[in-house]
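Severity: low
Component: inverse-folding endpoint
Summary: output formatting inconsistent between runs
Steps to reproduce: submit the following structure tokens with default settings.
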């Protein structure tokens, strides 16, 4: 028993009682001092005399242990960030950094501001398939937009896709075809349209450099190298129009670019077309469009009709009224 002269009062506190207060009741020093009507410094002196350690003063009972293989799996396969790894193992970030130095695990600094999906694809060096490339080329020729966020740390491009809500199934088909580069589908607030976009990735910079100049979509001179049956079909579904002949809307392209497209179609598919201007009553301008007549009209549909999505069967020759 120790006698403390505190606030002009003698207070008797047994060691067992103090241990009970701290370890069983989980009281703080302030609460114990208030209980015995004494100062906190008096409680601290008694603790030191009896070597009573508080929970926070005790060493951590469990040492953080993780293998090099597990950390490499977390970072390079799962694509987790340091913060996510800390949460996974419920440890401090400096503990993770110590293990990284110990195992000589080095992360690319450029990955710090990327999403987990981007990190996984960059670390695993995932490439686009030929089918995915064809869908992207056809989409860029059609309704899709390719762009970059300028003025920020990331300089990688992404591609966005949109359709009216009636063509949602077609957009879902594109999204599934472009996995794992595609993100989730969004419905407009109006409920009349839907859209999705790819992640920002260096792999799309090739398409950006090919199809964008000074912020505007252009047609490269070597477009014939990228235009195959599937690309032509996706382009037709996005911008094709069927009447007595077949029309590909190319309103955003110049006459010279339309000529490049016609030459590419002739080279790759032996289909000849003509440029015909169409007047737009809204903008009050004439726009060049690609028109295909007679046998070329039939040859075009022999290629695109078998590959058309069910949403666009009305654009197939067999359904022409």
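Observed output (run 2 of 3):
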């Amino acid at each position: 028993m120790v006698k403390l002269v505190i606030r002009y009062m003698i207070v008797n506190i047994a060691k067992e009682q103090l241990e009970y207060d701290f370890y069983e009741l989980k009281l703080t020093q302030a609460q114990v001092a208030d209980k015995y009507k004494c100062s906190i410094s008096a409680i601290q002196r008694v603790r030191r005399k009896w070597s009573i350690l508080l929970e926070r003063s005790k060493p951590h009972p469990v040492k953080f242990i993780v293998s090099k293989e597990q950390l490499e799996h977390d970072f390079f396969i799962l694509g987790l960030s340091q913060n996510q790894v800390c949460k996974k193992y419920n440890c401090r970030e400096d503990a993770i950094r110590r293990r990284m130095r110990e195992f000589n695990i080095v992360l690319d600094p450029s990955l710090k501001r990327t999403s987990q999906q981007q990190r996984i694809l960059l670390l695993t060096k995932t490439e686009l398939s030929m089918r995915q490339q064809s869908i992207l080329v056809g989409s860029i020729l059609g309704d899709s937009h390719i762009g970059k966020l300028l003025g920020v740390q990331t300089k990688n491009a992404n591609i966005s896709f949109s359709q009216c809500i009636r063509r949602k199934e077609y957009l879902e088909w594109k999204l599934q075809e472009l996995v794992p580069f595609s993100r989730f589908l969004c419905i407009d607030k109006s409920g009349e349209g839907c859209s999705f976009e790819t992640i920002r990735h260096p792999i799309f910079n090739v398409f950006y450099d090919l199809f964008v100049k000074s912020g505007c979509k252009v047609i490269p001179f070597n477009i014939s190298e990228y235009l195959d049956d599937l690309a032509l079909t996706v382009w037709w579904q996005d911008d094709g129009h069927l009447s007595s002949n077949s029309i590909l809307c190319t309103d955003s392209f110049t006459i010279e670019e339309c000529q490049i497209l016609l030459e590419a179609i002739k080279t790759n598919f032996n289909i000849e077309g003509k440029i015909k201007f169409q007047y737009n009553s809204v903008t009050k301008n004439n726009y060049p469009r690609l028109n295909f007549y007679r046998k070329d009209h039939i040859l075009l549909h022999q290629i695109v009709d078998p590959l058309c999505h069910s949403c666009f069967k009305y654009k197939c020759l067999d359904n022409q009224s």
